[in-house]
Amino acid sequence: MKLHLLDILILLAYLATMILIGFYMKNKAKQDKESYLMGGKKLPWYMLGLSDASDMFDISGTMWMVALCFVYGFKSIWIPWLWPVFNQVFMMMFLSKWLRRSNATTGAEWLKTRFGLQGKGVKSSHIVVIAFALISCLGFLAYGFVGLGKFVQVFVPWDLIKDYVPFQVADKYVPHFYGIVFTLFAMFYSILGGMHSIVLGDAIKYLIMTLACIAIGVIAVQHLQHQSLNVPKGWNNPFFGWHLNLDWSKIAAEANKKIADDGFSLFGIFFMMMLMKGIFASLAGPAPNYDMQKVLSTRSPKEASKMTGFVSIVLLPIRYSMITGLTVLALLYYNQLYLKGPDGVTDFERILPATINNFLPVGVLGLVLTGLLGAFMGTFSGTLNAAQAYIVNDIYLKYLNPQASTKKIMSMNYMVGIAVVVVGVFFGFLAHNVNDILQWIVGGLYGGYVAANCLKWYWWRFNANGFFWGMAVGVGAALLMPYVTTGLPLYWWPLLFVLSLIGCLIGTYTAPATDTQVLQSFYRTVRPWGFWQPIHQLVAAQDPNFKANKNFGLDMFNVALGIVAQLCLTIFPMYLITGMYQPLGFTIAVLVVIIFILKRTWWNKLED
Known about the structure:
Layout: H1 5-29, H2 33-38, H3 45-56, H4 59-72, H5 87-100, H6 107-115, H7 122-155, H8 158-161, H9 174-224, H10 253-262, H11 267-283, H12 290-296, H13 301-332, H14 351-359, H15 364-400, H16 406-430, H17 434-445, H18 450-458, H19 464-484, H20 493-509, H21 516-526, H22 533-542, H23 552-578, H24 581-601
Helix pairs in contact: 1-9, 1-15, 3-9, 3-12, 3-13, 3-15, 4-7, 4-13, 5-11, 5-13, 5-23, 6-7, 7-9, 7-14, 7-15, 7-16, 7-17, 7-19, 9-13, 9-15, 9-16, 12-15, 13-14, 13-23, 15-16, 18-19, 18-20, 19-20, 21-22, 23-24
């Protein structure tokens, strides 16, 4: 263990601060349901954006990205399109303001603005969104839990503390023990102070992470000054052909095995699948998790757009400074790192903790460790808050106790929070590694989500019955897929999408269209573009001054520019830290031009 007293004190100070924040925000959070779950919709957009970015800077995802950067080099900037990361650009340009105009508390509550309160499939559509939200929240809780345990185990070997633990823990469950300990801290402050605690805690964590990431970048540059990276040909080239063509056999043969196991060798096909899935997933809008909750918590639709745009700016350059810095150190000293798991197989997800533990000085190590543990706690608390919102707002208050007092609502929030944590930890015990959970969530589960959630924005005839059957078929198939087939979950996506789309169409045409009054209200309030002509005619007949949204072309132009800008923000620290100054200069020039254009085509045109 390389931790010194200063490192331990930094970590303890952070944990104590989080507990104090929970107590400090408790009274403000318990004023009412909206204050607890959404900060009273009074928090500024830049604080919510910082919080959202901070929640995305999770420990498990960062471990995964460092492993990707090591093995795939600069081509790894494309792999997060699995999420897809560019959904933030679609939200920034138009979907965030559409979503916020509903003034809803959760994604399930939002459905009543689209489908109303009466009609075939309305109640079922409500229930299926809650089910999807809870499944995805529990998946992300398990994902974070597994990554955290693997991370802490490197810094605190079990042999040092096992004599102080009053019960036996099998070796394979040591990461889970560490996961439970830090999960309890995250649970405490997030349940006690709600969204107020989460946003303030995320701001503190982001400050720590920024200092840590810059320090890692500087240390990596210093180590690289008198050495060169031993990497395969093409490693530092972000562009690619049909095949990946990275040969690690003479440097780290285990990396070739990882590429084969990941299924990314035919990178051109993998990329096209990611892009196709990513565009549809982005058009579907945010999934019902902490990201959606932050959008719904903004003060206005205009601020919702600003908040989402702010996320990429504050997240990507800082996060990739850490990812690139740790990758450079791991490449320079690969033979000094022990990356084998309990089964004796090289686990590249261990690069992040192993590199931090071996090459960071006292103080910086404490900052990085604290920041990454805080990253876990922030992601965990944001996801927990979203799960609480769905259970309390959309189940308890809608079906069980609509007249509940504020005191009862707060008590239910506390109990639900504890129950969700227990179930999330249970799923964490069943998971093998970070990558498996991530691939299933983004490739499988979200594949069943996309079709129904695309159609709800852009097609007037789509109804609640179609939404229910599309979601039920898609999510049900995603849950069954791991038991009937093998391979990369991303490759299941076209089948899941088609099955879900069939469910959507059959469900839609076996039930009447949504009430025209509901559709007119939605169209007037949200103002989407798409196939809304029959409803537009009805609205225009009542209000001749009403103008249809004809910004499809401009929005797609802005999306294309935004995705390029997002890639520039990602690769900028990679070029900087590895000393590739010519492409760095070109990247900065492209970024400046895009910012200048978007100022005119997006920022100046924002409206509520």
